[in-house]
Amino acid sequence: MSNNDTCALCELYGVVYLCEYCGLKLCGACLPDHQNKSCSDIWFASSSCNCALHDIIVSGYCSECSELTCVECEDHSKHVILPVKVVHNNIKRDLHLVKDDFDIICGKLNSYDKLCTSKMKELSLIKQQIEYEGNKWMYHILRKKQYLVSIVEGKIDQLQDNCQELELLLTTAKACFSNLENSDVWTFLKSWLKIKNTKEEFESMEPCSYLLQKLKFRPGVEDSFDVSSLFGNLTVDINQDNEKVEFKEDIESYEEEVEKLSIHLQESQGETGPQKATAYKKKGIELQDGLKERRRRYAKWTDYMNAREKDQQKVFLSQLKIKEEKDNIYKCEQLKDENSAIAQELDSLKKESHQKVTNMLRNHKDEVDSFQKQNQDLQHRLSRKQDELKSLKAVVNSVIELKKGNAKSSVYV
What we know:
Layout: E1 17-18, E2 25-26, H1 31-37, E3 60-62, E4 67-69, E5 81-83, H2 84-93, H3 95-136, H4 142-178, H5 185-204, E6 213-219, H6 227-230, E7 232-238, H7 240-270, H8 274-309, H9 313-412
Antiparallel strand pairs: 1-2, 3-4, 3-5, 6-7
């Protein structure tokens, strides 16, 4: 809304408020009358719900920017502004979907927390092994020991920081989610936006790369003078079992989401109408595509691990590269065929549309000619009727004059 908008009732003064129930733009003079007659249940927010830029009560919600707006916010003048009450009802209606998403996130976080705990225990055991070997070789390899311990402790600190950050996000989301159902319109929207941002932030975070790795400490040979190289080193092995479990859990979670959406789709077809059913169906198709992609990646990863066990990684990667090149060539050929088919269809549509336009113009011309002929006939008929009317008027006038003459003669007699 801009300052040039006028009141929807009087059309004289500038807009001061936007009715959250009916969406009318009102000036200060028309607001009390509209409140008493049209929207008796209108409610004004406290000063805590004022616009941060203009210090005016917020009255709308910009669907493109996901922000609360007031009547003076010109940045949203070309956007779609909805009344706050309408947005509140829409969000509250779909609140169960947000709850389902957070249930899935909580389940993922619990499994992630368990994995972090087991990894921290493993790293602690590795640290103890390193310290034991360091005590044996204390005089010769003190610097080496400290270096390795610092690496492991750094990984532990990173895991702890990651877990604390995720727990803080979850705590914040739970605190906001618990207040949603009992909150009013204004605090509800602010809490919902905060939960939405927290969810996006959680989904954008990638799992720590150390969870997909397994550190092993290999002690060196005793009674050796080359203690710097023989004390031991940290080796990185991909944790095949854990990664398999993660892939399977990811696929199972997607299958659960697809199943939930199918249930919601059946319910929405009988209760909420075709619009919501279409939205559920679209999201279900997206989830099924994601599930297919994950299964394809899991199969590729399994083939790679089998090749790795046979020490044939290079052969597998070269074959995979050749296969991807062939797939890309096949896709390019498909796109060319589709483009040629589309071009042919466009040409046929152009010809058909040109023919239709030509026929329409010809038909319209024939209709215009017929209308002109009818118009000429009507004009001729009208002129004849006018002539007949004039002659009839003359006859009537003569009859009247004749009657007047007869009347005068009878008077004289």
